[in-house]
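Thread: quick sanity check before group meeting

JM: Hey all, I'm pulling together slides for Thursday and realized we never actually wrote out the predicted structure for the chain we discussed last week. Dropping the sequence here so it's in one place. If anyone has concerns about the input, flag it before I start.
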Amino acid sequence: MAQDQEKKFVELDNFNPSAVDLTAPPTNARQYLRQVVAGRKHEAAVVAVHLEEDEKQPASPLKLCVADPSASATCAFLPDKQWRKSRLELFRKGRDRAESMKKCHEKALKLKWPEKATPDQWKALLFEKPHEGVEEAAESTKSLHAHHKGTPPLVSVLLSLKQPQINNLIEMMSEWYLEDGHSRALFEWLFALLLFVDQPIHADTCSALRQIAKEVRIQRSTLGEEDQDLIRELTFIIVIIAEYFTQKDLMDV
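JM (edit): ok, ran it. Output follows.
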């Protein structure tokens, strides 16, 4: 019994693998192991699998990790934390007023807006020539919207927009800012839309806001001490996006 327990393997003597009959049933352990060894020597080194056309998966696009240039964009003349805190509180109060205004449907103008997939028409209405239904109201508030050649962001205009249109406009604002750079008219429109957009914001809208904030950081980093007004305006937008809309990784420190 002790000898059987010590012998735990089968010894293979020297044999010719080519002479082993792989089709014959083995009669003992040694023959079985010889067939295993001989069979492996006859196997192909590479196994190929044929797939039908409908079984093939499209190749995944190559994704490159590109450093975010906005991450290192700093401003030496950044307003202090107390100023930023006061702007955040100001925006919160503006949102509260906007929520109350949304209930006053009688103040909304009856305006026909372009289709979603026509950004050029929207851009022309907002920044080039006022909507024909807004001309009278725009004229009466002209002094308050001196930077606007097109339709100003009046409360009555904002109330005429449906939430999908507001989300769509914020996404277009991101594209226009990246293409054309900063303008007071564009940022006043963006600020007004952020007052009236519902929460939680749509994923595509959130992505657009993040892109705006990143581009703002880059632009702001190029400004000097003589550009304090513009630095504050850009910082206000970052406060809104990063702190109110909780994109904390974009906050100024």
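AS: nice. The chain has a mean pLDDT of 84. DSSP finds ten helices and no strands in the chain.
JM: adding both to the slides.
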